[in-house]
Amino acid sequence: MKKLLFVFALTISFFANGQNLYIKTYGNKNDKPIIFIHGGPSGNATLFEGSNTAEALSKKGFYVIAYDRRGEGRSIDPNATFTYAEAFQDLNSIYKTYHLKKATLLAHSFGGLVATLYTEKYPQNVSNLILAGALFSQQETYDHILDSVKKIGTKKNDLAMLDKVAFVETLNKNSAEYRKGCFELAGVNNFFKIPNPTEESKKLYAAYDSGEFFKTNIRNKNAPLLFYQNEKQNNIDTRSSLKKIKAEGIPIYAIYGKQDGVFSDDQINSIKNLAGKNHFALLDNCSHYLFVDQQKEFLSYMSNWIK
C-alpha cells in the first residue's frame, strides 16, 4: 500500500508540473536504471507492466521506469502534439525527476524510433540502447507487410485481401491512413502472434487480459493522425543515426522475434550486422511482443547484456 501511495503521489506531481505523464517505477532506485519506451503512436506500457515483465526485470537488479508518452495511454493530455520533440521533453523530465545521469533505453516497436533519435540528440544521457522488436526502417517494414500479404492473398485466392492491398498501395506513404492500412493487414494475418504459444506465454497473456492493467489499456485513436499532422519525420530510416550512435561508443543491442511478421529477413540481417553478433538475439517461436512470447529468454539477454 505504501508503494502504491508513493507512485500515486509521484503521478500527481507530474500533473502539477504540466507534464501529464503516467509513470511507475519498479525496483531499487540505486540499481542501474532502465527506461521502457513503448510502441505507438497510440500505444502504452500496460502489456510490459501487466505481463509482469517490468517487475521481473527489476528483480534481476535493475531500476525499471515504465511510462506512457504524453497524450498516449494513461498520460491523457488533450494538448499533446505527438512529436519527437515532445517525446524528448518528457524523457528529459523523467531524467530530472529521478535524478538520472544515464539510463539504458529499452525500446519496443515505434519506441525504437523515439529512443534512437533521442540517443542521437542526447548521447550523454544513454548508457545502452536496446532495440526490442523495434522499428528502424519504416518503409521497408511497410513494403514487407504488403508484399507478404499479397503472397498470402494470391495463395488463398482472396480477392478482397488483394483489393485491400492494392488500395493501401495507392495511399500517401507519409500518411496515417497508409500506416493504419499496413498494420491492419498485418494484424488480420496474425503477423504479431506466435504460431505455437508456450504454456508460459498463454498464462502471461491471460493474466494481462484479466488484470487491472488491461482495464487501463487506453488507445488514443487521434494519436497517429496528430503525429502525421505535426511531425515531419513520419516515415524514416534510422540506420544512419544508429551507426553514428555506435561510433560514439554507446552500445547498441537488438533482440527480435523470429516469427515477427513485420520484419523481413533482410531487415533482421541488417540490424544484426549493425549491432554486432554479440549484441544481437533472434528468439525462436517469438513474434512482436517478445517480452511476453519468450519472457525468460528476453530477461536473460537483458541481464547479461546490461550487467
Automatic annotation (TrEMBL):
Keywords: Hydrolase, Signal. GO terms for cellular component: membrane. It comes from the Bacteria. Pfam families: Abhydrolase_1. GO terms for molecular function: haloalkane dehalogenase activity; peptidase activity. SUPFAM superfamilies: alpha/beta-Hydrolases. It is an enzyme of class 3 (hydrolase). The keyword Signal applies. One of its GO terms (biological process) is proteolysis. InterPro entries: AB_hydrolase_1, AB_hydrolase_fold, AB_hydrolase_sf, Peptidase_S33. The keyword Cell inner membrane does not apply. Its EC number is 3.8.1.5. This is Haloalkane dehalogenase. It comes from Flavobacterium bizetiae. The lineage of its organism: Bacteria, Pseudomonadati, Bacteroidota, Flavobacteriia, Flavobacteriales.
